[in-house]
Amino acid sequence: MAVNYGSKRVVVGAHYGLRDWLSQRITGALMALFTLIVLAQLLLTSGPIGYDKWAGIFASQWMKVLTFAVIASLLYHVWVGMRDVWMDYVQPVGIRLALQIFTIVWLVGCAGWAIQVLWRV
Fold first, then answer.
1. Is residue 9 in a domain?
2. Is 8 within a domain?
3. What does the pLDDT read at residue 103?
4. pLDDT in tens, 23-56
5. Residue 70: CB partners within 8 Å, gap ≥ 6?
6. Number of folded domains in the chain?
7. String of b and e for 56-89 (b: at least 16 CB within 10 Å)?
8. Rounded-to-integer distance, Cα 99 and Cα 83, Å
């Protein structure tokens, strides 16, 4: 007969800890940097801020690429956060899976819409 000393600990979850923490910080820093770049462009321009000014900011190719990178970062940032919320607070597996699928579909739809809007400018 085997003797068990101490408590038996059951470890569950996907163990994404450090990777998720680091990805949240990196994507958050990229989004903050992008915000500062857009604010600097707005503050350094003169005249009223209207559609033409916004279209001018996002018309250059480098700004479109940077904006696309920020959109991708935002989507990943949201996915990591929502996946963690669903894993932590929704216990029934079927409901959790349905919510995760809904989140993925929603984020893919938002990505398609954002890219469509970005490349129409």
1. no
2. no
3. 98
4. 999 999 999 999 999 999 989 888 888 998 888 8
5. 30, 31, 34
6. 1
7. ebbeeeebeebbeebbebbbebeebebbbebeee
8. 9
